[in-house]
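Recall that a protein's primary structure is simply its ordered list of amino acids. Everything else, from secondary elements to tertiary packing, is in principle encoded there. The following example makes that idea concrete.
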Amino acid sequence: MAVFRVRSVSALVLLGSLGCSSGGEHGAGAGERRNSGGTDASTPSSSGASGGASAAGGATGSSGGVSGSTSSAGASGTPGTGGVAGASGSSGASGSGGSANGSGGATNLDGGAAPRVSPWGIASSASSSRALGSWAPAIRATGITWLRGFDASNTDMNLTIAATNGLDVSGILIFSGPGASQTFPVADPTGWSNYVTTSVTQCKGRVHDWEVWNEPPNFTDDKTPTSYATIVKSGYDAAKAVDSTVQIGLAAQSNHVNWLEQTILAGGADHFDYVTVHPYEILGLVASGFEGEYMAVVPTIRKMLAKDDPARASAPVWFTEIGEPVDGSITAEHQAETVVKAYTMGIAEGVEHVHWFEGIDGDSGPFGLIDASGRTRPSYAALATLISKLGQFPDYVGWVLLNDRDYGFVFDGTSSTVLVTWTPPGATDTVAMSETVAVIEASTGTTTNGTSVSLTNSPSIVSGDLASLKTTAAQNRRRPFPWGGDFSTATAVSYRAGSPDAGLHPLTAATLVTVDGGPARDESTSYGVSFAVDPNFLSYTTTPVTITAVVRANGAGAAGFNLKYESTSGSSSTGSWYGVPGSDQWYTQTWTITDDQFVGKWGYNFTFDSDSTDNSNYSIQSVTVAKK
C-alpha cells in the first residue's frame, strides 16, 4: 500500500466559551458579505492550508470576521529575507476593501448575487494558534487574508489580532459536552444546539463561516455518518436561527467523498452552505505527475452533490487544510514548488479558499511558511510572489499544454497575463515565446527576461502579453483536463510495464525487469501496488467495470494479493485471495466489479494488496480497466 506522511495529532483547543463581542466594528456587519470588491486592493490576499495528512487536526478554535479600512500588518523583513519579527509597517489594503475576504462562494445559497472572493488562506496548529500575534503580521504581508481556526482560550484577543492584521477567520464548531470524550454529541442534542446558538450569537458580525467538526470522521469516537448528519442538521438550524446569512460547512477528512455522500443521504442534505476537504495525500502525489488527480477533486465532489443534493450542487468547495512538511526528502525548495502548484491548480479547478498548513511551525512539525526560529522559508516568498502576480481575486482563463506536454495555467494577472507552468517529473524543456516575457522561478525567486522559457518540474511564473496562449487557454477551460491524453470517451484505460501510462497510473515508480525478452514490473519488494484511474474516464459514477491483470510469479516464493477498491460503501474487496499460479508463463486474471465508486480519497482507486513482501514475489506485465 502507498505510504503517506502523517503529521502528529496535537491536543485540540475546543471552541468553548467564546467571549466574543457581537459588535461589528472590526468587520462587516451581520449579514454583510466581504470580498465583493471588483478590483484588487493594494496588498493582494493570500492563502494557506493547515495540513498534514489524514490524521491531521488543525486548531479547532472559534473564528471571527475581520475587515478594516486599513490594517497594519507589515513585517520587518520583505518576503524571502528571513526577517519576520514584529509588526512594523502597513501591509493591509487601504480603503473599504479591508482584508477583502468573502464567504459566500460561487453561488450564494441564501439568494442574491454572489460576491467575488479571495482564495488566499492559512491554517494553524493548536500550538501556533496560541501565539497568533507573533506571526500574523508576517503572514498578512504575503497577501494572505484568510485564517482558519485559532486558540479559543482567549477568543476576543485573537479576533482582535486577526482584525488588526486584516485577516478574516473561519470557525470550527466542535463540542462533546462536559466531561465527555471527544465524539459527536448525539447523546446531548440540547447541549450541542445551545453551544452552536451561543457561538454564533456571541460572534455575530465577526464570524460568518462555521465548519462543523475538524475533518470527520477523525477526532471522534463515534465515526458514523448518521451521527455526523444529526449534528450537522441541528447545528445548521441553530446557527441560521441566530443569523440567516451565516454559512455552515460540511466537512470530511482527506478527499472522503463517500463520507460526504453518506452524511447527505443520512439527513444532512440542504443543511450546509459549503464543503471542506483536506486532500493532503493527493497533493503529495502531484510531484509524481498526478496533477490530473488533484484537478479532479472539485469536479468529483460536484458530481456527488448534483446527484445527492441538487440544491447544493454549486456549493463552494474549500480546502481548509493542505500542506507539506520540510522533512526527510522534502526540501524547503520543494515545499515552495508545492505551495505554488497547490494554489494554482486549486484556483483553476474552482476551490473557493485554499488554506495552507501552516503559517509558522508548530507542534505538528515543520509545515510552516516560516520556521520555528522565525525565518521565512522559500515557500513564503514563492506564495507572496504568486499572490502579487495573480492578485487578490485571481481571474483564471484556462489551461494549456506547452510543447504538447508541459502543464500551464493562464490567468489575467494584476498587470499582465500570467502563466504558471512546469514540466512532467524528471523532464526539462525549452518553450519558445512570441514576445519577451518575464520569468520568475518559484523555488528560488530568480527572475529573467527573454523570448524563451527554460522549464523544469519546479514551477515558473511567466508574465507578458501572451495573447495566443490566452486564447488557447480559454478554449481549453471547459475541456477534459489531460493526464497523458484525453480518456473521457475511452472504453478502457491501461498500464503496461515499460510503456507510457494510458489512463491508468500506478502510484509508485516501477522496478522494471526483463521477463521473456520483455519489460515487467517487479513487485517483490513492495507490500502492494495502487492505481489511479484517469478521472475523465471514470470518477464517482458507479459503472460496472472489469479489472484485468497479466501477472507471473518470480520463482518458487509466495505470490498473490487481494484486490481492494473504492466502492459505494467506502472501500471493498473482491473477497478472495488471488494466488499467481506460477512462473512458467504469464497468467491473466479478470475481476468484475459492479459497486465501484472511484473518487480518489487517498489519490488512488484500487490496490493489489499482498499484505507483506512475503507474498509479493510476482511481476506485472499489464493492468487494464474496462467499462462493461
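The radius of gyration is 24 Å. The chain has a mean pLDDT of 85.
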